[in-house]
Design brief:
Layout: H1 5-14, H2 20-26, H3 33-37, E1 58-59, E2 72-79, E3 91-93, E4 96-100, E5 106-110, E6 116-120, E7 142-144, E8 147-151, E9 156-161, E10 167-172, E11 186-188, E12 191-194, E13 206-211, E14 217-222, H4 235-241, E15 253-254, E16 261-264, E17 269-273, E18 277-278, H5 282-285, E19 297-301, E20 308-313, E21 328-335, E22 338-345, E23 351-356, E24 362-367, E25 374-377, E26 384-386, E27 397-400, E28 413-415, E29 420-427, E30 429-434, E31 449-450, E32 464-471, E33 476-483, E34 491-493, E35 497-501, E36 506-511, E37 517-522, E38 531-535, E39 538-546, E40 550-557, E41 582-584
Parallel strand pairs: 1-34
Antiparallel strand pairs: 2-40, 3-4, 4-5, 5-6, 6-41, 7-8, 8-9, 9-10, 11-12, 12-13, 13-14, 15-18, 16-17, 17-19, 19-20, 21-22, 22-23, 23-24, 25-26, 27-30, 28-29, 29-32, 30-31, 32-33, 34-35, 35-36, 36-37, 38-39, 39-40
């Protein structure tokens, strides 16, 4: 019987003569909606920001485990030729790593060798940097149907050819010159989801969905209402306007959703975390109070229309930069003997929230760090129980968790093996007071607050950091590791390992069940969030590192490459306009 070449190739593969990677190289897989939905069953890759739609930052890979992690060594490193601190979580598909550096530069490198395949610089005007909070950082890309999507700092959403890095389409997503993008896009049901930042600069936040093929705007959900003398964009904003006072729309209002998204394919709900108020002081932006919906909230939206199904506001009438843009995780867990579909978040305000992700019902809320702005959360109303003068209306006050937040952009992770969440956080205080001389100025940071300690108060305590293992079923701590300041983002694996980084530049591995330190390597300051993948039967762990010049460091068992020093920043890349270069190299 005549056999085709493809048939022979498949049979040879089944007999184990050729590695599985050979088939991958011959027939690259298509990253479509089904592939993203089934990402948990594709452990060898990392297809979206949190590896899966649930945003767990968990990999079931266990070739590297708590018994052999001490054998990890450097396999290869790649010099990124970018400046500024990394915040990126790279993606891995079909043997290629897709990452970003500062100024929204995107690079693709071979996952086996670290050799550059292509590089794209969107040519962001460097003069835009001062209008971006907080710096020209970028947290990553999305992959879908042969394209790589990146949100550029200056507000563009750009679709690149996955093989070449060439621009396919580019659209301006922002309506205001002071809005910026630092977060990673997500793709849901053929739509690219992107938010924006800049609440302090006098902007109005929103989340948008664009057609993945054409870049056409599908829908937009504004977080705060606009001028009430004009028609509201949707009924949700008409309801929100009742919780605002004064002429807030002249100062933007804020609420920018600059980071957190998650998606439940079964419930068909897109979850969006929204940002702080602008200006910070509610007495200025909304005189007379009010919850100021939908600031500092978790929103559940229909991904096809952008219409809201439910919301939960973690910090009503936010006055402290307590965003709810920190990453959210979806999980199914048993609580009090009942199986629950939940969404959890540890936002900047210091509480760990567990919500029913179908209805938005608050299940529990407990502090995971020191706080003094509230004594708890009322389980009947879902509202925080605020302490006297927490809103600094009667003069300066020292607030825990502080404007830096108990948890910021650094991703927490969840292991279905230990059933624990791993939160990289900060224990810190920050002084707040009213600013009687405040004058709103668009394009500048508008706080309407002063940051001077109360008279005769002791100096604020020195901030400290931690990695805490948190049980979401009981909302209690399991174990904790302390740091001198905020650590980096986390990765948890099926090998009973949690990877994290210390503020002084060490990549660390702990046992996920007990928090025992098992591995420690010094790489340099500015460590982002690790990822892991398997190729040619070998598991790798990689992370981007650097503050001025950076590298992608990639580790494997028994690898022995010497660890190079971080490079110096490339000349002329920190100021002025970028060179707009885009190179293509052979594999």
């Amino acid at each position: 019987m005549k056999q085709t070449r493809a048939t022979i190739f498949r049979r040879v593969l089944l007999l184990g003569i050729l590695p599985a990677s050979a088939l991958t190289a011959q027939q690259p897989s298509r990253i479509d909606q089904n592939a993203l939905k089934r990402a948990p069953s594709r452990p060898n890759e990392w297809l979206t920001y949190g590896r899966d739609y649930a945003e767990t930052h968990y990999s079931p890979l266990k070739q590297i485990d708590d018994r052999n992690v001490g054998r990890l060594g450097l396999a290869w490193s790649y010099e990124t030729h970018t400046v500024a601190t990394f915040e990126d979580t790279p993606l891995i598909a079909d043997g290629v790593i897709y990452g970003t550096g500062s100024w929204s530069v995107v690079f693709a490198v071979d996952a086996r060798t670290g050799k550059e395949i292509w590089r794209h610089d969107p040519d962001v005007d460097r003069s835009f940097g001062p209008h971006a909070c907080c710096g020209p950082n970028n947290r990553g890309v999305a992959i879908y149907d042969g394209m790589v999507y990146v949100g550029a700092l200056d507000g563009r959403l750009i679709a690149l050819d996955q093989k070449t890095g060439k621009t396919i389409w580019s659209v301006k997503t922002t309506e205001d010159e002071y809005q910026s993008i630092t977060g990673a896009p997500r793709v849901v049901k053929g739509k690219v989801i992107i938010g924006n930042g800049g609440a302090e600069f006098g902007v109005r936040g929103y989340v948008s969905a664009y057609d993945a093929k054409t870049g056409k705007l599908a829908w937009r959900f504004y977080v705060v209402p606009g001028d009430p003398s004009k028609p509201f964009e949707n009924p949700e904003l008409a309801a929100a306007a009742k919780t605002w006072h004064g002429e807030w729309w002249k100062m933007g209002g804020g609420g920018t959703p600059w980071d957190a998204f998650a998606y439940d394919p079964v419930a068909d709900l897109l979850y969006v975390g929204t940002g702080n108020g602008g200006p910070w002081n509610r007495e200025v932006r909304s005189p007379g109070g009010g919850d100021n919906l939908y600031l500092s909230s978790i929103l559940a939206l229909k991904p096809e229309t952008g219409r809201m199904v439910w919301y939960y506001q973690t910090t009503p009438g936010d006055q402290w930069d307590f965003t709810a843009t920190q990453n959210m995780i979806l999980m199914d867990i048993a609580i009090d003997g009942r199986q629950r579909k939940v969404i959890v978040q540890a936002p900047k305000n210091g509480f760990f929230y567990v919500l029913d992700r179908i209805t938005g019902e608050l299940i529990s809320a407990k502090p995971f760090t020191d706080i003094n702005w509230a004594t708890g959360v009322d389980m009947k109303t879902g509202r925080p129980i605020e302490t006297p003068n927490a809103r600094y209306t009667n003069g300066p006050v020292l607030i825990w968790a502080g404007a830096g937040g108990a948890h910021s952009w650094q991703p927490m992770s969840y292991s279905p093996d230990t059933k624990l969440v791993y939160i990289p956080g900060t224990n810190a205080a920050f002084p707040f007071g009213p600013d009687p001389n405040f004058k709103f100025t668009r394009g500048r940071q508008n706080f309407a607050a002063t940051f001077v300690s109360p008279p005769n108060a002791a100096p604020p305590p020195t901030p400290s950091g931690f990695l805490v293992a948190w049980d979401p079923a009981t909302n209690t701590e399991r174990w904790r590791v302390k740091y001198p300041s905020r650590p980096g983002g986390t990765l948890v694996t099926g090998g009973n390992l949690v990877f994290d980084s210390s503020p002084d530049g060490h990549l660390l591995a702990y046992s996920a069940d007990k928090g025992e330190k098992l591995w420690d390597v010094a790489l340099g300051p500015g460590i982002a969030t690790p990822v892991t993948w398997l190729i040619d039967s070998k598991q790798y762990v990689a992370v981007l590192v650097g503050r001025n010049g950076g590298r992608l460091f990639t580790f494997a068992l028994d690898a022995k490459e010497p660890i190079p020093a971080l490079p110096s920043p490339p000349p002329g890349r920190g100021r002025g306009r970028g060179a707009g270069r885009q190179s293509q190299q052979s594999q």
